[in-house]
Amino acid sequence: MRPATRLALLAGWLGYALIPWYLPDGMSLAGFPFGKAGTALALVLSGAAPWLAPVGVALLLASLLAFRQENAGTGKLLAWIGFAGLVVFFAQGFSVTLKDQGMPALAALFGGAGASQPGMGFGALVTLVSLLLLLCHGLAYRGLCRGDLFTTSSIGIVIMLIALFIFLPVAVILRSALVDSSGALVLGEFVERFFSPTIWGLGCLSANTNCGVAWNTLILAVLTGLITTLLGLACALLILRTGMPGKRAMRLLTVLPIITPPFVIGLALILLFGRSGLFSTFLFDWFGIPRSRWIYGLPGVLLAQVLAFAPIAFLVLIGVVQGIAPSLEEASQTLGAKRWTTFRTVTWPLLRPGLANAFLLGFVESMADFGNPLVLGGNFEVLSTKIFFAVVGAAHNQGQAAVLAIVLLGFTLAAFWAQQYWLGGKSYTTVTGKGDSGLPTPLPRRITWISALVIGPWVALTAVIYVVILMGGFVKTMGRDHTPTLQHYITGFSIDFSRGLYFDGSAWPSFFTTLKLAAISAPLTAIIGLLTAYLLTRQRFAGRGALEFATMLSFAIPGTVLGVAYILAFNVPPVEITGTGLILVIAFVFRNMPVGVRSGIAGLSQIDKSLDEASATLSARSFTTLWRVVLPLLRPALVAALVYSFVRSMTTVSAVIFLVSAEYNLATAYIVGRVEAGEFGLAIAYSSVLIVVMALGISLIQLGVGERKLGRRGTPALASSAAEPIKQG
């Protein structure tokens, strides 16, 4: 065996024989106790936990292969031992849980019928990883992925993580759609709920009633996806392909909404366009236009979602626009094509992967969002709000929430399929490693003017909204009493210097907790997301398409449902982590991972595989190729993943509202509490502080990661005067 396989086997024995298998009651997850007491081996030998013996048998059998020659036969045996070890590991874990629960028939096979075990701890985690690596290394010895241990291990780890932290919670919550409170199967009730007129009704077309919530959600998501994609593209083209002034300020304004708690934009829109809003009052006083409630419903929710999610499309598309090879556009001009023809026949087709990924992200974000529909929806109901009230409302209909979640998943699957169909099997490679030092073609004038006309109102409205948000923290009551005051900031963020440096403001504990968890989860999200994107685009293995879709599941499920699913799945053994910081980090990572995956796929689709092959020809392993060749070219995607995961960890509400605890309270939960208490000034002041902190964090991320170097000439002004005479479109 290779040294890496022996190291994995050694780790398995450490987890089984030296590290405590279970987490003691009240032990912090930050602790890492060593010692023989409580180890799996000690528990088996004492007869306290006989169900752990099969796991040790699997490690023992693998040890017998430790010094055998590496070949296909050894790989086959090792793979089967690792697979069997994983099977018995999960079988005993889910069959022996709380007393008289779990799966009694299966527990009897392990000698634990009627017994119970606490949540698994660090010893179990290390052993699980070891068994998984043994399986993956065995498959590599048999020739899978050209025998590369890193690739097979990465595939196995990603699949395991997705299965544990996406499929398991989703399966737990969706199971309730098919069973009643006693656990009995009720298919009739499921069919009745699924085809309910409240979901699929078309009364809005034939009568003066509302359409079903599914159609409302679909219309809203399609409009949001289209508009955010076009806005993101227009902004990326103006910033990268024109010499217009003020690009730095425009780039800042377009990113601001993504670093704002989602419901804050909704509140700002109400303060501007509600019946008593600033614009509504101005229009009534000066022009006699009657006040109305147009902001409540589809227009208001659509406007809020476009403002909130267009930056996601921009972050994805700016890297794609950067990656288009100027030499292709220069070749088109050399053949006599005008600017418009070049844009239509060369530039636009190469943008298709980015456009498809940006639309998919906007579509899914719209479906999963419940903060903006909750604030601005009025009588316009969508799936996310219906699920929210089914989970936390007075009726508490968990089965109905699960049925609605299934409908939402169906829409996401359809959007995923449509994206794949539109892209087809075409190639979008533009970064090849060959000479490529041309100048990007200036935009056709009609595209420049259309983009500017589209971006102008968006940027202006964004600027006005943030003026309102920043003012709200410095006045007593926004919209009523505009007397200047600093009391909101003093209440939340006061510092007492009389006792040294003492943070005695009420907001400091949640602020520091949120900042710490976001700093931990952001790099993990980026690493897992980009690694998954690399595996999906650069490797061929069974189930690759299913894995790609699985990465979108956590995005498709509304955050509220995902939070409840995490409670149901991880509040009892074998994985018992509710009330800890770990469950919040896991929720952040797997809720935000799809952005890293989609931006990584969009970026990798432009990088020619010949670069990987050249690295392999020079005897570099896949990890070296990924680290030294691919990753430097993926810096825009890395920035997008880091920025998005960091700010969403700082601002997310729905996915964590049920997971916070007294020890791990988050900023958004604190803000929601202040809103519920009517302390809007303090809530807006806290949101303003978060915006400033996240803006600094984004600057540090971009400074630390830098930009990719493609060896191309600069793009001075991108005007026709900066290059050879070009025929105008």
Automatic annotation (TrEMBL):
On the tree of life, the source organism's domain of life is Bacteria
Per the record, membrane topology reads: Multi-pass membrane protein
Q: Which UniProt keywords apply?
A: Cell membrane, Membrane, Transmembrane, Transmembrane helix, Transport
Q: CDD domains under this entry? A: TM_PBP2
Record localization: Cell membrane
Q: Where is the ABC transmembrane type-1 domain?
A: 214-419, 511-702
The record, for Pfam families, names: BPD_transp_1
- Spell out where the chain crosses the membrane: 7-23, 43-65, 77-98, 118-141, 153-174, 218-240, 252-274, 294-325, 402-422, 447-474, 515-537, 549-569, 575-593, 680-703
What Gene3D superfamilies does the annotation carry?
A: MetI-like
For the keyword Zinc, the answer is no
Record-stated family: Belongs to the binding-protein-dependent transport system permease family.
Q: PANTHER family under this entry?
A: FERRIC TRANSPORT SYSTEM PERMEASE PROTEIN FBPB 1-RELATED, MOLYBDENUM TRANSPORT SYSTEM PERMEASE PROTEIN MODB
* Protein name as annotated: ABC transporter permease
Gene source species: Bosea vestrisii
